[in-house]
């Protein structure tokens, strides 16, 4: 769990963009437990999950599909970001997250 808590580089990069309400004063939680699952980031006020998808998801397609079905059934929205986009295109990732939030919550 300590390694999971420390996060990987893309999670750390994303966290630096959003922690302490840096992103439109939205409160993001990191490594939130929802049911039997841990999500990368969670915005309670929006019921929004942000998942950073990398190589750790390879070979876990069935598990990921079951997990996503459960989370969506709870009425949560999911915004997925590939790790490479976090590392090499964070500016546009944050703009796309902004557009996602405007589209789904305004």
Layout of SSEs?
Elements: H1 2-6, H2 9-18, E1 29-34, E2 37-43, E3 48-53, H3 61-73, E4 77-82, H4 83-88, H5 90-105
Parallel strand pairs: 3-4
Antiparallel strand pairs: 1-2, 2-3
Low-confidence stretches: none
Span between termini: 36 Å
Treating each run of at least 4 consecutive H or I residues as one helix, how many helices?
A: 5
Q: Which term fits the overall shape?
A: globular
Q: What is the CA-atom radius of gyration, in angstroms?
A: 13 Å
> How many strand segments?
4
Query: Strand share of the residues?
Result: 15-25%
The overall average pLDDT, rounded, is 91
Biggest β-sheet: strands ordered side by side in the sheet: 1-2-3-4
Main sheet summary: 4 strands, mixed
Q: Which series of helices and strands comes N to C?
A: HHEEEHEHH
SSE-based structural type: alpha+beta
Q: Roughly what percent helix?
A: 40-55%
Describe the structure.
The chain has helices spanning 2-6, 9-18, 61-73, 83-88, 90-105, and strands at 29-34, 37-43, 48-53, 77-82. It has 106 residues and is of the alpha+beta class. The chain has a four-stranded mixed beta sheet with strand order 1-2-3-4, sandwiched between helices. It is globular and about 35 Å long.
